[in-house]
Amino acid sequence: MRRAPALSFLLVTVFLDMLGLGLIVPILPALLTAVTADASSAVLWSGLMGSTFGLLQFVVSPLLGRLSDRYGRRPVLLASLTCLGVDWLAHATAPGPWPLLAFHALAGACAGTYTVVNAYIADIAEPDRRAGAYGSIGAAFGLGFVAGPTIGGLLGAVDVRLPFFAAATLSLANVAYGWFVLPESRPGDRTTRLTLRTANPIGAIAAVLRRPVLGRLAYAHLCADVARMIHQSTWAFFLTYRFAWDTTRVGLVLAAGALAGVVFQARAVGPVVRLLGEKRTAVTGSLVGAASLLGTAFVTEPWLLYVLVAVGVLGSVAGAAAQSWVSRSVRPDEQGAVQGALTGIGALAETVVPVTAGAAFGWLLAYAPPGLIFVAAAGCAALSALLLARTPDARPVPLR
C-alpha cells in the first residue's frame, strides 16, 4: 500500500460522510414536522427527499467519476466534500420544506465521493492488497453507520437543527485536513472524453454493461445491491412482527451486527482474499449472504437470528472482493468512469428498492408469510453469486 496518509484520509472521509448522513436520520422527521406543522405531510416530504437524494446521486456520480479521470482525483474529491459541507449548513438554516428538498437534492449530487474514493484506492493500492483496502473502506462506512444515528439522536435532543451544524463542521474540517495531507493519486488526463454521451448516467452505465466481463460484474453488483436494500428496508419491521421486539432491542442487534462487520472487514477481508482469490471469495461470500437471508425468512427463535446475523457478517467479504475484481478489470485512466457507473447503479437501487420492498412487505403482511420478502432477497444474492461464478478473468478493454 502506497501513501498511508492518503488512505487514512479516505477512511476518515467515508466515515464522516456516513456519519453526516446518519446524524440526520433520527431528527429529520422532527425537523420536517416542525417546518410543515403536519405529521402526515412530513412523511410525504421525507419520502420525496429520500428519492430525490438517490436520483441526484444516480445522475451525478458518473460525471464525478469521469471528471476525476480527466482532472485528477484530489480536486474532485475536495470539491465534493466542500459542497457537501456547505449543503449541510444550508439544511440547518432552511426555513421550509421546499428549500430542504432542494438542499437534500444537492447533497445527493455531492454524495459521489464514494466513487472517487474507490478510484483513488485502485490508484494507490497494489493489486494483491486492494481487496483489504476496500475492506477497510467498508469498515469505515459501517462504523459511520453505527455512530451517526446515535450521535444525531443525542444532538437532536438538544436542538433539532444541531446535527446539521455538526455534519457541516465535520465535512468542512475534513476538507481542511485533506487539503494538507491528500496527494494526487493520478494526474488528470485531458484526453479523457467529457461528452454528454460519456458523462450521463445512462450512457456511462451502458458503456460498462457492453463489456463482457465488466458487464457481468456490474449486473452482479446490482443484484447484490437489491438484496442489501431489501434487507435494510424491511428487517426492522420483520423483527417487530415476528418477535414483537421494541425499537431498543432491534437497534442493539443492528448495531452489534454492524460493529461485528466493521471488525471483520477491517481485519479479515485481506487475508481471506489472499487465501482464496478475488473470484472465489466474492462467490463464496455471496452464497453465504444468500444463506443468511434465506434463513432469516424462516427464523422462529431469537437465538437463531443471532446466528444468522453472524453468518451475514461472514458474507460481507463478497463486496470488497468484487470491488477489487472490478478495479483490476479496468484501465487506470477509466477507474473513475467505471466506479461512477457502479455508484449510479447502486443509487438507482437505493431509490427504487426501498419503496418497492416496503409495498411488497405490506402486501405480504396481509396476504402471505412476510418472510417471503427475504426469500426474494436471498434469490437476488444467489443470482449475484451465479453471475460472479460465470465471469472469467480478462484483461481491461477500453470503454466505448
UniProtKB/TrEMBL annotation:
<dbReference type="InterPro" id="IPR005829">
    <property type="entry name" value="Sugar_transporter_CS"/>
</dbReference>
<dbReference type="GO" id="GO:0022857">
    <property type="term" value="F:transmembrane transporter activity"/>
</dbReference>
<feature type="transmembrane region" description="Helical">
    <location>
        <begin position="44"/>
        <end position="64"/>
    </location>
</feature>
<dbReference type="InterPro" id="IPR020846">
    <property type="entry name" value="MFS_dom"/>
</dbReference>
<feature type="transmembrane region" description="Helical">
    <location>
        <begin position="100"/>
        <end position="121"/>
    </location>
</feature>
<feature type="transmembrane region" description="Helical">
    <location>
        <begin position="371"/>
        <end position="389"/>
    </location>
</feature>
<dbReference type="InterPro" id="IPR036259">
    <property type="entry name" value="MFS_trans_sf"/>
</dbReference>
<feature type="transmembrane region" description="Helical">
    <location>
        <begin position="305"/>
        <end position="326"/>
    </location>
</feature>
<keyword id="KW-0472">Membrane</keyword>
<feature type="transmembrane region" description="Helical">
    <location>
        <begin position="76"/>
        <end position="94"/>
    </location>
</feature>
<feature type="domain" description="Major facilitator superfamily (MFS) profile">
    <location>
        <begin position="6"/>
        <end position="396"/>
    </location>
</feature>
<feature type="transmembrane region" description="Helical">
    <location>
        <begin position="338"/>
        <end position="365"/>
    </location>
</feature>
<keyword id="KW-0812">Transmembrane</keyword>
<dbReference type="InterPro" id="IPR001958">
    <property type="entry name" value="Tet-R_TetA/multi-R_MdtG-like"/>
</dbReference>
<dbReference type="InterPro" id="IPR011701">
    <property type="entry name" value="MFS"/>
</dbReference>
<protein>
    <submittedName>
        <fullName>MFS transporter, DHA1 family, tetracycline resistance protein</fullName>
    </submittedName>
</protein>
<comment type="similarity">
    <text>Belongs to the major facilitator superfamily. TCR/Tet family.</text>
</comment>
<feature type="transmembrane region" description="Helical">
    <location>
        <begin position="250"/>
        <end position="269"/>
    </location>
</feature>
<dbReference type="GO" id="GO:0005886">
    <property type="term" value="C:plasma membrane"/>
</dbReference>
<feature type="transmembrane region" description="Helical">
    <location>
        <begin position="133"/>
        <end position="158"/>
    </location>
</feature>
<keyword id="KW-0813">Transport</keyword>
<feature type="transmembrane region" description="Helical">
    <location>
        <begin position="164"/>
        <end position="182"/>
    </location>
</feature>
<dbReference type="Pfam" id="PF07690">
    <property type="entry name" value="MFS_1"/>
</dbReference>
<keyword id="KW-1133">Transmembrane helix</keyword>
